[in-house]
Each structure stands twice: as C-alpha cells, then as structure tokens.
C-alpha cells in the first residue's frame, strides 16, 4: 500500500510539472508563426500553423479521422522505445485533446482504418521495442468509447499498409518478427476484410514485398506507397508505388516517388482527389534520415509534386485530412507532441526561385517536368516537380526571342510565333532527345498571339503582325504539320489569355494596339464546330473581365472554371485572380497573387497552378519569381480553432477551462454505409475533455499507471547520440504476457477499473480463412540495421 501511495504521489508531481500548455518540442523547436503582413490583406499564403500538442508525445503511433476528431493510438512514448496503450482524440473545432479508452494492448506499427464511427487497428508490433508482430485486430467505437476484438488477421504482421475501399479493408505487405527480434521476413500477401461479414479473404499479392509502407484509396483503386526491406531503413527505402485494381485483381506500377521513403504507415492519405505523403524516413545515416518533405500525387497527370515542408523532420507521424485542412502530429526519432495544421485550398505557396530571370515567358508541362523559356535569356529551363529542382542547361531554341504562345502535344513543347526573327515561326522541343526543331510556319507572322489545344489541334489567333494588332486566326495539325486558315476574330487583340474548356476557344482581355496600349476586358469565344465567333461586345449575356488587362499568360481551365491570373494595363501590374464559370456566366475573385506580375507563364498540373517568371512592371521587365496556387472551392470549409503558440517556458497556471476557440464545424464522414454491429459486451468509458491550459485537470485525465517492473528496452532503433529527454515520457502500464488483458485503467485518479470481457470464439463469424492460393513469403537478405 505504501508503494502504491508513493507511486501515485510521484505521478501527480510529474503531471503537475507537465501542464499541457508547457509542452515543448523534444527534437526541434518550432519557429514562431511568421506574419505575412505585406500580402495578408489581399492574398492567402500557405503556412503550417502550430496547434495544441498531444498530451503524451509519441512516435510510431496510428491514427484516423472520425467526425471532427483525429484519434491517435498507441506508439512509443519514451526515448527508451517503450510502447503505450493510451489513446487521445483531437477535436479540430475546439483545438482540444481528450482522453479515450485505452486500447487493450500497447501497440505500435499498426495501420489504422476508419469505417463510419468505428476504427480498426490491424496487426502491428506488441509492447516495447522490438516487439513481436501480431494477428490481432482491435475495433474502437467512437460513440461508446469502447474497444472490442475484431476478426484476427490470417497471419501476424507489423508495419503493413491498410486502407478502406467500399465495404472492404485491404491489408498488404508488412513484416513478421518474433518478440525481441528484428524483422525476419517481409510479406507480399494481400488480405481483404469484408466489413459486413467480418470475414477475411486473399487477393493478388503485391509485386514487391516490403514493410513500413503507406496505403491509400483513390478513385476506386488501392495504392501501396514506398516502404523498406526488413530492418534496413538506412539503405532500402523504396520509391515504388503500386496501384491495385479490384476489378481485375491486379497491380500496376505507377509513377515512382521522387525519393525512396518508408515509415509512412500513418501519414499517407487522400486530399481532394490526390494522395499526400508527409514526412517519413529516407536513406542515409545509421537509422535512416527523418524527412520534413510533403509530397502530393495526382493520378490524372501521374506525377508527384513537392509541397511546402512541415516545420520539423518527422519519421512515422500521424497525418490526415479534414475538410480543407491537413493535420500532422507526433512522430520523430524520439517522442514529439506537436500538432501542425495547414490549408492548401485557395492558398499560395512560394516555390523554388528560378535560376534565371525571365519575362514574357512561355512553357508547358511534360511528364513530371515544367519547361520554360522567355525574354532576356536564350536558355531552356526545366523544373522537376518532385525533386523541386531547376535545370537551366538544356538545349537552346533556334530563335531566342520572346512573346511566344505555347502548347504541349505528344510529349513535345510547341512555341508559336514571337518577337523579331521568331515571328510566325513554330519551334518544337523534344525533351526525350533534348533537341529543338521547326514546324511549318504560321500563315501570318505573329507575336503575342493566343492559343489553345482542342481535339488534337492547336488554334492560334491574334497577336501583332507587322506592327499592327491582328485578328487573324488559323488551326495547326501537329500530326500532319499543316495549317488551315479560319474565320477572323471579331476584335483584333494581342496579349490575350487563350484557353479552352475542351470544346470552345476562349480569349480573355488583351490589347487593341501595340505592346503597351490600353488593355481590354473583352471575352471572345470561337466554336470550332460551327466555325463562328461571339464576344462580350456583341452578346450582353457574356460578362467581360472584372478588370481590363493583358499579358496574363494562359487562361487555366480547372474543374469547370477559367482562372485568369495577374496581367497589366498601361500603368500598373495586377495581382488579381479572377475565376470565370462559362455555365453560369459569372465571375468571382479568389486569393490574389503574392506578387503582381505580367508576362508570366501559368501552367496547371496535379490540380495546382504553377506561376513562374514574368515582370513586376507594366513595361518590359523580368523576374526569377515562382509561386504556386492551389485552387479552392467556392464554398467555405469547416471552421477550425485558432493556432496555439507553444510557450518556451512554463506559464503561470490560470484557473480556466475555456476552449481556445468555440467555433463549431460539421464534418460528414466520407463513408455513408452503416457500420457492422460488433459484440455489445465491451468495456465503456466516458471521454474526459482536456482543457487547453489547466495542469491540475491533466492529472485526472492521464490514463497511466506506474509500472512495477519495467525492463529497460535496449534497442538499436534509436541512434546512440540521441539526447535523452523525459519531459514528455509519461509512464504507462506495460502489457501482460496474455494476448488480451482482462482489465484496463479508465480513470487512474480514482483507480476505477473496468473489466474488458475476454474474447471468445463465438463473437467472431464462424467462417474460416481459406487461402485461394499458397501463401508465398518473399524473404529478403537480413541486414543488421535497427528498425522502429
């Protein structure tokens, strides 16, 4: 009894010093929130804001979004790689964490999948590192705050990938290891759980057996992303990305990651029709190198793009998307508590500066690269979307002028017309051979013309011909290298933004005379089928541009709307971004450009508008500026809490229990199917809301018990030079030798114990697992590197 009293006294003392508001980063300090005062009034700049940290720091945890909460489950919570059974939920609307019922066994490396109000925790490694892999499946009911046993995996696995598609959970890859051993073999097996029948079946195995991989569902397909072999995290991080088609039961390799990446089991998720990968581990060092990279995959363009990095490097973070917000928490070489939230939608990002200054730029996207040429430099520059790097040493075009119109066809970049000797010329760049060639000349020797690609043909209109603004119009067939003249434009224009919705050829704005004349707000539309023009000048139902301007580059067509960015009039350069809906015939304005420019080259890829080069003055000017815009929806997304700054010292405790933000939000789960009923004889507990800054309440909310005999975990997972930091390492009860603990502490302050029923076979379906093919394990050569 005396020992118990001493233990609780020690726990309360530690909790008193551990007030939620005094938590600090363990590995890397978070930089103070930077105010973008210069652009705050007119534009939205992307930033990773710091929110309330998780009360118990950890890494190698699992997590999932249900409703308006992010649930973080298990993981390692000390520098000595000890596992925890604690579960916390972060309410995105109130910026508060609450304690949830503990998972029945301390677990790490388990993929977590949400199904309605239920959360499935599948396999993983049990206990302190290096724990053995398990077949266990645990199911958490977020409504009743109770855990129950789900149908066991056909085989034990840790560090596998799992994702939900329809009414099934796909589970694949991972590794097998015995307790106190490192990974013994990797698996390529692919198991599928029917959520209605609660029965497992086999599906086509992965092409490449690996562990510590990520998984996601997108457009009816399942993706297996990255990973590593065995415990060789410093040398074997994989670039491979495989897509599974459930209809054909087959895998196809798609675009590789730009860099091999593992330890991403809980930081791969879907974002607006794309897949995001946050942090993870890349090759290097003794135990792999933690990464701060944020990568985005677009299946339509089959490209990976590098986004703004998170504030600190993180292996095994928990990441998820909620509405238009992206949440990232925990992870690292040692336990970390930070919570970062960012919003891509309708926000701008600063991209890598151009290696050369360019004005009146033109370019196009081919594969995973953006090609760019422009005024003041004869170079051909290429930007690698995934590697986030420039190469300005490619072959130079034959006519090194500017004011070209550009289109991409058949993996080639076509430049139409231009100033000086390039007027009326067609220059063609082929990246595969890094060579330029010439096509048939335009019927009129133009510069500053407008163009669009429609049904494999390129329409070119307007521009300046022999010093006069033209209304000439022709179509080019790149397959036959021939031109055909077409009906002239109603209004002669140069420097107009050309674009297409796939059927019509649109021209927005432009100038009626000269390269510095007054800008126009007119909209002109050509119908290739009827070979007729209409314009806002003759048709009052077509609204003109909200602001007259020219030299806007291409008009970007995205999700049923045209985006018109920047441009200039005689005296000034615009930062406006106006969006036109041709169905409703309405304009709206979105976040302005961070830097007003004209003569830039907007290009769309992966649902992002890349805006490089251009001038910041209405007269001839160049720049190395490169910015990226993430288009957003017309409606507002769910509200979220105000960022919470992490203090650098322990603040004076105030007796307040008021949330930092009382804004509410509604978030409808993506799955509308009714969850399968689980056994009702489960333990229940009422979640306790953790106030933002009330250390005294924290003591009653932590579901931890001091261990009576916690062995020191000697693991090669943690580098020997990692500084010891116990500020966030709260002790937790270690699992017993039995598979299913018979009790769980739900309120340590009152020592109330709720019994968890022992799992019995009658709770599970009577169907048995019968492999449809012999199980084939792909064995890798063992390498003596540690793995978390």
From TrEMBL:
Ranges of compositional bias, category Low complexity: 636-704, 719-732
The UniProt annotation puts the region (Disordered) at 636-732
Q: Where is the composition biased (Polar residues)?
A: 706-718
InterPro entries of this UniProt entry? Gal_Oxase/kelch_b-propeller, Kelch-typ_b-propeller, Kelch_1
The entry's protein name is: Galactose oxidase
Q: Which organism is it from?
A: Herpetosiphon geysericola
Taxonomically, what lineage is the organism?
Bacteria, Bacillati, Chloroflexota, Chloroflexia, Herpetosiphonales
């Amino acid at each position: 009894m005396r020992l118990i009293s001493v233990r609780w006294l020690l726990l309360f003392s530690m909790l008193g010093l551990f007030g939620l508001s005094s938590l600090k980063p363990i590995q890397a300090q978070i930089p103070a929130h930077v105010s973008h005062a210069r652009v705050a009034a007119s534009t939205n700049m992307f930033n990773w804001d710091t929110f309330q940290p998780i009360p118990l720091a950890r890494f190698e945890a699992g997590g999932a979004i249900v409703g308006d909460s992010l649930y973080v489950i298990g993981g390692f919570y000390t520098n000595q790689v000890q596992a925890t059974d604690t579960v916390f939920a972060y309410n995105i609307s109130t910026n508060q964490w609450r304690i949830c019922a503990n998972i029945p066994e301390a677990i790490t490396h388990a993929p977590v999948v949400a199904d309605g109000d239920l959360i499935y925790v599948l396999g993983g490694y049990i206990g302190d590192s290096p724990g053995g892999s398990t077949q266990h499946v645990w199911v958490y009911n977020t409504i009743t705050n109770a855990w129950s046993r789900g149908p066991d995996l056909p085989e034990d696995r840790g560090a596998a990938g799992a994702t939900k598609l329809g009414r099934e959970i796909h589970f694949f890859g991972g590794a097998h290891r015995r307790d106190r051993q490192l990974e013994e073999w990797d698996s390529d097996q692919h198991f599928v759980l029917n959520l209605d029948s609660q029965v497992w079946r086999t599906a086509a195995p992965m092409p490449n057996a690996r562990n510590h991989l990520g998984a996601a569902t997108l457009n009816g397909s399942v993706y297996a992303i990255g990973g590593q072999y065995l415990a060789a995290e410093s040398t074997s991080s994989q670039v491979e990305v495989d897509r599974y088609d459930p209809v054909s039961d087959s895998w196809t390799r798609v675009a590789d990651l730009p860099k091999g990446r593992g330890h991403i089991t809980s930081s791969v998720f879907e974002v607006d029709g794309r897949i995001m990968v946050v942090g993870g581990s890349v090759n290097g060092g003794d135990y792999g190198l933690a990464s701060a990279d944020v990568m985005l995959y677009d299946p339509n363009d089959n490209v990976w793009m590098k986004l703004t990095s998170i504030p600190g490097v993180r292996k095994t973070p928990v990441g998820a998307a909620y509405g238009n917000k992206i949440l990232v928490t925990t992870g690292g070489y040692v336990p970390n508590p930070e919570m970062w939230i960012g919003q891509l939608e309708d926000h701008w990002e600063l991209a890598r500066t151009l290696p050369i200054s360019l004005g009146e730029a033109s370019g196009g996207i081919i594969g995973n690269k953006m090609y760019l040429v422009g005024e003041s430099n004869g170079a051909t520059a290429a930007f690698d979307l995934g590697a986030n790097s420039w190469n300005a040493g490619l072959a130079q075009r034959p006519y090194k002028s500017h004011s070209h119109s550009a289109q991409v066809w058949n993996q080639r970049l076509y430049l139409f017309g231009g100033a000086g000797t390039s007027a009326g010329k067609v220059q063609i760049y082929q990246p595969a051979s890094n060579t330029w060639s010439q096509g048939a000349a335009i019927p009129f020797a133009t510069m500053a013309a407008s163009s669009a690609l429609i049904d494999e043909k390129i329409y070119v209109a307007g521009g300046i011909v022999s010093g006069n603004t033209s209304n000439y119009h022709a179509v080019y067939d790149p397959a036959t290298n021939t031109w055909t003249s077409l009906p002239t434009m109603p209004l002669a224009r140069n420097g107009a933004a050309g674009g297409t919705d796939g059927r019509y050829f649109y021209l927005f704005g432009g100038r009626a005379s000269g390269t510095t004349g007054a800008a126009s707000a007119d909209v002109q539309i050509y119908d290739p089928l009827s070979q007729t023009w209409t314009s806002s000048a003759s048709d009052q139902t077509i609204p003109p541009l909200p602001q007259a301007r020219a030299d806007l580059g291409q008009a970007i067509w995205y999700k049923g709307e045209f985006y018109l960015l920047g441009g200039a009039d005689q005296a000034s350069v615009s930062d406006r971004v106006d969006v036109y809906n041709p169905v409703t015939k309405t304009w709206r304005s979105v976040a302005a450009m961070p830097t007003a420019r004209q003569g830039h080259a907007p290009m769309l890829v992966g649902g992002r508008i890349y805006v490089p080069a251009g001038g910041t003055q209405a007269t001839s000017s160049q720049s190395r500026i490169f910015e990226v815009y993430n288009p957003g929806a017309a409606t507002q997304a769910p509200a979220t809490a105000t960022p919470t700054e992490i203090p650098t010292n322990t603040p004076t405790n105030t007796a307040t229990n008021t949330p930092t933000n009382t804004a509410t939000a509604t978030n409808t789960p993506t799955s509308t199917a009714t969850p399968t009923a689980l056994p009702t004889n489960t333990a229940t507990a009422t979640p306790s809301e953790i106030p933002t800054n009330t250390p005294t309440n924290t003591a009653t909310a932590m579901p931890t018990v001091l261990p009576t005999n916690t062995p020191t975990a000697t693991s090669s997972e943690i580098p020997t030079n990692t500084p010891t930091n116990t500020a966030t390492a709260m002790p937790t009860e270690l699992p017993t030798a039995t598979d299913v603990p018979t009790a769980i502490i739900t309120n340590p302050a009152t020592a109330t114990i709720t019994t968890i029923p022992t799992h019995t076979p009658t709770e599970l379906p009577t169907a048995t697992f019968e492999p449809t093919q012999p199980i084939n394990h792909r064995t890798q050569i063992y390498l003596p590197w540690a793995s978390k």
